[in-house]
User: Fold this.
Amino acid sequence: MSDSIPAKPVGCDEHDPSLLSVEQAQARALDLVSPVHESQTRALHDALGLLLSEDIVSPINVHSAGQNVRHPGEDIAAGNAVLTRGQRVGPAELGLLASLGIAQVRVWRRLRVAFFSTGDELRPVGTPLDDGQIYDSNRYTLHGMLTQLGVEIIDLGVIRDDPTAVEAAFHDAAQQADAIITSGGVSVGEADFVKATLDKLGQVDFWRIAMKPGKPLALGKVDQALFFGLPGNPVSVMATFYLFVVPALQAMMGQTRTAPLTVTAISKHKLKKRPGRMDFQRGVLSNENGRLMVDAAGMQASHILSGMSRANCFIVLAQASGDVEAGSEVPVMPFHGLMP
Assistant:
């Protein structure tokens, strides 16, 4: 791709002008997306979580019969559009469709997403660790987030550090999936074969983004599948997934996406921050006597996943900002607003 950002060592990347802003990276990611438009008919019970591929028009007048007289069409009049193309079918939508007597709907098929981990140091959970080994936690995190997103999951496991095996894994994933996700192997100097394999395939950009956590990101195509190479640290995986992968996959699904919910809260304590990168600090948002308050959820290092488990939001600190004093207002993204 012609607009790749060259990787280069710098003394202080906080002031590196080659870093992409979060907004620039999000826009570039969406530019690569092609919606997967394969429609299918599903029975109403099997449509939960899927996206409508056409508008739903009421075939009848609907009227919630109760203790008082209800007039035909008081709730929904025949011929009115009640649900729109791209809308997700949730429990309320199932009930609404049933109230219209609709037994089947046209929906987009589930997106197919393949993912795998690479590294000889990774061990499956439930087995003992030797020196230098770690458990393969990122694959479980990705599995959970993809399940919440409602896609069809293709888990290819752990791929050993071997160039032939890594290349075969990419081609295997591309034959099965609409999108591929890996974690790790996208930073300059990382000693594995992911970046080398993607360089060989020649369709992937390696970006350095002005955000913390999650500076390195790879994005492009492997054959016809959209590819995301996420950082290796666990918190970075989650942050980049929410900010870049979710919007792109939703666009591929044909879902109408709105900006994540952002609210303003008062910081309970001082928040440390260096200018130069947008910071997504893990926080605990609470309502205290009608005022939204937020506090940091423990240590903010990108390898500490326990803080992400305790948190319920990101505290979003602007790229140019420095330390935030206690009592200051800060923008906050609740986690529940980052997923459909």
Q: What stands out?
A: The chain is about 25% helix and 25% strand. Helices lie at 22-31, 91-99, 137-149, 163-176, 194-201, 234-253, 305-310.
